C-alpha cells in the first residue's frame, strides 16, 4: 500500500499547481510586524498569469481586513516583497497619496479606517494589500 501511495505522489506531483499570487506585504509599527491582507491583483510568475478581484477593504464583518493598532501620528513602514514602480495609499476612502518608490515606503498614520496599499511592480504586475488602521 505504501508503494502505491508513493507512486501516486510521484506521478501526480507535476500536476500540482502552486498558486500564483504576489509576495506577502507587511507593515512595521511600534507594536511589531504585521502581515497585510491581499486584495485585488494581477500577477505573473513562471510564465503564468492570474488576476483576482476583491471587494473594497472594510473593518467589520466577514472577510474584514487585518486590524493594525497604531498611535495617531506614528510613522509606519511597509515591507514589500518585490521592487515597485509606484506605491500609493488610501485610508478611509480618502484621497490616494503617492509614497516613496522603494521596497520600504513609510507613512505617518494620520487617518484611521480601511487602508488600501496599491503597488505596481517593475515586473510581474500589480497588487493591492489591505488592513484596518485603528488608533490606540
Topology at a glance:
Elements: H1 2-12, E1 26-29, E2 32-35, E3 37-45, E4 48-52, E5 67-70, E6 75-79, E7 84-91, E8 97-99, E9 106-108, E10 113-121, E11 125-135
Parallel strand pairs: 5-11
Antiparallel strand pairs: 1-2, 1-6, 3-4, 3-11, 6-9, 7-8, 7-10, 10-11
Task: Sum this structure up briefly.
8% of the residues lie in helices and 48% in strands. The protein has one helix spanning 2-12, and strands spanning 26-29, 32-35, 37-45, 48-52, 67-70, 75-79, 84-91, 97-99, 106-108, 113-121, 125-135. Strands 3, 4, 5, 7, 8, 10 and 11 form a 7-stranded mixed β-sheet that branches.
Description:
The protein has 136 residues and is mostly beta strands. It has a single domain (25-135), classed as Sandwich (Immunoglobulin-like). It is built from one helix and eleven strands. It has one helix spanning 2-12; strands at residues 26-29, 32-35, 37-45, 48-52, 67-70, 75-79, 84-91, 97-99, 106-108, 113-121, 125-135. The strands form two sheets. Strands 3, 4, 5, 7, 8, 10 and 11 form a seven-stranded mixed beta sheet that branches. A four-stranded antiparallel beta sheet has the order 2-1-6-9, with no helix packed on it. A hairpin with a 2-residue loop joins strand 3 and strand 4 (48-52).
* Number of beta-strand segments: 11
CATH architecture: Sandwich
Low-confidence stretches: 6-11
Structural class: mainly beta
In angstroms, what separates the terminal alpha carbons? 57 Å
**How would a crystallographer describe the biggest sheet?**
7 strands, mixed
Q: Into how many domains do the coordinates divide?
A: 1
The CATH class: Mainly Beta
Alpha plus pi helix count: 1
Shape: globular
Q: Percentage of helical residues?
A: under 10%
Cα-based radius of gyration, to the nearest Å: 18 Å
- Beta content comes to over 45%
**Would you give the CATH topology?**
Immunoglobulin-like
Mean of residue pLDDT values: 91
- Give the ordered list of helices and strands: HEEEEEEEEEEE
